[in-house]
Amino acid sequence: MPSPGQPLHVASLHVHPVKSLRGVAVAAAEVDDLGLALDRRWMLVDDAGVFLTQREDAGMTLLRTELLAPPGDTADGTVTLAHRVRVHAPSGDTIDVAPPEPGSRRRRVRIWAHEVAACDYPAEVDAWFSEALGRQCHLMWLPDDSRRPIDDPHARADDRAAFSDAFPVLVALQASLDDLNARLAAQGHAPVAMERFRPNVVVAGDAEPYAEDGWREVTVGEVGLDLVKPCGRCVMTTVDPDTGRTGAEPLRTLSGYRKVDGKVRFAQNALVRNKGRVRVGNSVVLMGEAGA
Questions:
Q1: Beta carbons within 8 Å of 101's beta carbon, 6+ residues apart
Q2: Measured between alpha carbons, how far is residue 283 from residues 9, 80, 194, 255, 279 in Å?
Q3: How much is the pLDDT for 2?
Q4: Residue 235 phi, psi dihedral angles, 5° rounding
Q5: Radius of gyration, alpha carbons of the chain
Q6: Which of 20, 30, 245, 257 is the residue whose CA sits 20 to 30 A from 73?
Q7: What's the rounded mean pLDDT across residues 177-185?
Q8: Contact by Cβ (8 Å): 225, 217
Q9: How many CB atoms lie within 10 A of CB 90?
Q10: Lowest-confidence pick of 132-136, 178-182, 286-290
């Protein structure tokens, strides 16, 4: 529950380098119009170029990611586009992947209704991921000049997303998770971690549960965010990230009190107003609220 008098602040930051693989908590990150640096810039696709997620293969959560700083990094913990990703398979095997060089070979891939040009990787990289997942797949990277628009009336003409489901940033409130976990406990269920909801920015402080529903403009560190739409939750929230097993919770409990227009809502989708840097501990300042 909220701590009286404690200002709103960034409790944690999370980057998910490869869509649907397990993400990583970071101390700080550069932010541009695609969101936190490297968040969902990689994606796995099948032979037809169609994206893969935990919705169809819950075992993807067992592939853990780690971000590796480039040589000569200032060691201040800020994630940038110069970082690489190391992926850990359940077997203990690892692979390191860097963003491709400019001019790398591209192919068309599909994510939801969009087809975009993405860079592929050598056969040995695809073979590693195929072995780790137990199915044929291919690793793809979204280059800076490949535009994936946001098909939503809240978005501006120049807004775009990487390989996230829809929006570049997802903001969650710790008080909302605390409320959900209290409801789960009252029914005899185990609590769930915020990781189930795969947010980028977790906010804590003096706020009532689900107060984020009314937030419209916030400043986080150097970055302005427009919170434009509640996030409709799916079966991915029922995947235990530690085991890959699925169940009914927390989606069943959320459905009892957070279902609007057929969608179960938790956390807020956001657009980026300006580039900058965010860090754990940054103040979160509300610039506009619904009805204000």
A1: none
A2: 4, 21, 20, 32, 9
A3: 44
A4: -65, -15
A5: 19
A6: 20
A7: 98
A8: yes
A9: 11
A10: 286-290
Phi-psi region of 254 (alpha: psi -120 to 50; beta: other; left: phi over 0): alpha
Residue 105: CB atoms within 10 A of its CB come to: 9
- Indicate the domain borders of the chain: 9-289
Cα 139 to chain centroid distance, Å, stands at 18
Cα separation of 266 and 264, whole Å? 7
Residue-wise DSSP of 17-31 = SBTTSB-EEESEEEE
Cα 75 to Cα 83, 170, 229, distances in angstroms:
12, 26, 35
Q: Specify the pTM.
A: 0.95
**214, 40 Cβ separation under 8 angstroms:** no
Beta-strand runs (E) in 183-240: 201-204, 215-220, 223-233
Tokens of 158: 């120049």
- Tell me if 264 sits within 8 A of 12, measured CB to CB: no
β-strand partners of 30: 277
For domain 9-289, say whether CATH 3.90.1150.200 is its number. no
pLDDT at 289: 73
Six-digit token string for 272 = 């980026």
The confidence score (pLDDT) of residue 288 equals 65
Separation CA 199–CA 206 (nearest Å): 19
Kindly tell me if the per-residue pLDDT of 26 is higher than 80: yes
Strands 24-26 and 9-15: antiparallel
DSSP state of 32: E
pLDDT more than 90, % of the chain = 90
